[in-house]
Amino acid sequence: MTSTPSQPRIAVTGSSGFLGAALVPALGAAGWQVIRVTRTAGTGAGTAQWDPARGLLDPAALAGVDAVIHLAGAPIDTRWTPEYKRTIRTSRVDSTALLARTLASLRPRPSVLLSASAVGIYGDRGDTELDEASTLGDGYLADVGRAWEAAAAPARDAGIRVVHPRLGLALARGGGALAKMLPPFELGAGGKIGRGTQWMSWIARDDLVEALEFILRTPALSGPVNVTSPNPVTNAEFARTLGQVLHRPAVATIPPFVVRLLYGELADAGLLTSQRAVPRRLLAAGFVFGHPTLESALRHELLSSHASRLV
Fold it and tell me: Which of 65, 168, 187, 294 could covalently link to 228 via disulfide, CB atoms 3.0 to 4.6 Å apart?
């Protein structure tokens, strides 16, 4: 892509992932020249190579960028081993620190860095409503979240506007958590996990992409921003709504011990925890959700003409 003098340039890490795959074309359509920051050598124009594990990122590859969105990080939705837990942490913390140091060294510097975080930073909080002013929680994912956000300090100290979008569970057809949930629900064997009282902070992927674009062009937003639907639901309500949209029963209950057998530590650290996060700052800044309710989001994702094969 050839840039013009008026075309802003943005670098994106994690561009081939579940979120990045939707974000990059949306940014292009919005007029950004996108530079994909990848680990793969020789990927041609519009890319910059890095190797966070080795601390390698050529500042020249990011020269002249106006903004950066950092999404890179190892998936957490797999069984954890001690080694993989280290990977989860280092893939977030070390990559963020490398990127922040590099951006701080640039002249001129980009005006904004969106460095992803997650609602797991709040820990297991039951029915408590959580906004950006809420205290942070305890546990492995909360500890990772603290270190992840803190690693961006060099960019913030250099005067770059740093935003930490605390992401909820992104829902979209053909990928992410929703794709893993669908098979048992389509067979009529879906249902709640455990008691089903744990809150789920979710967001339609289309809204997530729109929210990130909105944050880019809203200078008043910095620091933590919950990027979640304004209407979190309990796990039982999620199961019930998904079953209704698919016209399938959703009365099964997956006992906690089964979840622990399948997922190990991830069960108690993620699947059985409760975060009732709300996007207080996004709403106050004027962001409008396209799919604010779970039923609307699921119908959009699963019942559109090109997704009808799923139902």
Answer: 168
Other CB atoms within a 10 A radius of the CB of residue 109 amount to: 18
Per-residue pLDDT tens digits of the chain, which is 311 residues long: 444 557 899 999 999 999 999 999 999 999 999 999 998 865 566 899 999 999 999 999 999 999 999 999 999 988 899 999 999 999 999 999 999 999 999 999 999 999 999 999 999 999 999 999 999 999 999 999 999 999 999 999 999 999 999 999 999 988 889 998 999 999 999 999 999 999 999 999 999 999 999 999 999 999 999 999 999 999 999 999 999 999 999 999 999 999 999 889 999 999 999 999 999 999 999 999 999 999 999 999 998 744 444 43
Q: How far apart are CA 57 and CA 167, in angstroms?
A: 26
* Distance between CA atoms of residues 25 and 298, nearest Å: 22
